[in-house]
Design a protein that fits this description.
The protein is of the alpha+beta class. It has 11 helices and 16 strands.
Length: about 400
Amino acid sequence: MKWIAGGVTAARGFTAGGVSAGIKRSRKPDLALVVAEHPASAAAVFTVNRVQAAPVQISKRRLRAGAARAVLVNSGCANCMTGPDGERDAIRLGREVAHALGIPERHVLLASTGLIGRRLPVPRIARAVPRLVEQLSRASHRSAALAILTTDRLPKEAAVEVRAQGKTFRIGGMAKGAGMIAPSMATMLCVITTDAVIAPALLRGLLREATEQTFNRISVDGDMSTNDTVFALASGASGAVIRRGTPPARAFAEALRAVAGRLAKLIVVDGEGAARIMEVQVQGARTEREAQACARHVAFSPLVKTMLAGADPNVGRVAAAVGASLARFDPDRLEIFIGSHRLVARGTVLRVAKGIVRTLLTHPEVTVRINLHAGRATGRMLTCDLTKEYVDINAGYAT
C-alpha cells in the first residue's frame, strides 16, 4: 500500500467538481458532485441521531438497492428540521442532477451540511447544476473537497494504491468536519471511492468496520450532528475483485481503514479553534466496551480539553474523567501516563516537576495513556483541545 494524490477521484471511474451556487453569503464554493462513469456498488453509514436531515432519510432509502452513480453535497445549509418542504427540495435537486447527467434519479445520493432549520435556495442551486456538471473531471477533486467545507480551515483528502495478488486497486476520499464532532458514526460528511470490484453487502460491512475504528473514535466537542454520512462507491474499473475471506479482501479492509483514519485525524487537527491534538489510550480494561467508554469519557471532558489548551499540568482532571466513566476498576491500581512520564501509580499522584508535564502538554500531539489493571481490553480516542476560539466561532455561528 502506498499513499497517492487524487483524493476522491484517485480511483479510476470517477470525476468530481465543486462550484459556488450562492448558498453561502461569502460566495465561496458550496456545491460538490462526485460521479461514477457507470453504476457503482454503493454503501453508507449514517448518523444515529434521532433528528435526521432530509438528505440522510432520502439517501437511506435509495441505498437499499446497493447502487449509485452520483453524490451531490452542499454546504451552508443542513436542510434539517425543514419538514416536508425540505424533503421536496432535496428530491428536486437530485432530479436536476439526474437529468443533467442522464441517469436514473434513484442513483443520486444526497448530503448537506450547515445551519439547521433553514431551507435550501433551490432555484439558485438548480441554476448552478449545469455549470457543476460541465466542470466535472478527475483533476477537480480539490474543488469538490473545498465546496463541502463549513467552519473547516483546510480541505481533507486521502488516497492509497494497493497491489494484491497481481491486481492493483485504489481507494480515495474527501471529508469535511471541524465542529459538532463526536462518535456515534461520526460528525462529518465523507465520500470514499474505490475502483475495486466489490459487492454492496461486503462493501457495507467493511465500511462499518472502518468507521467504527476511525470516525467513531474521534471527538472535537462531544456533539453529534444530524447530518453525518459516510458514502462509499465502488466503480470496479480496476478489475481487482474483492471476495470475502480472501487476501485481497484483507488488503482492501486495511486500505479502507488507512484512508478513513487519515481523514478522521485531519478532522481533529482542523477542530474549531484547535491548537493541539491528544490521543487517549486505555489499557487493562475488563471489556473492549468499557475500554472505549473510558477513552471516550476522557476525550469528551471539557476540563481535560481545557487542561490541554492551557498546557496545565492537572492530571487529576484525567483521573476524575476515568472514574466517571462506565469502566469498572480498582482506583488503587490506576496508572496514568502523559507521554513517557508516569504521573499516577497505584491510584496516587506522583511527584513530577510541573515544568516537565507542562512541556509535554505543549507538543502538537500529546498521548495520554491510562492503565486500569482490570483486564486485557484496550480502547482509543483522538481529540483536540478546547480553546477560546471554539467559543467565539460557535457563539456567532447562526449570525
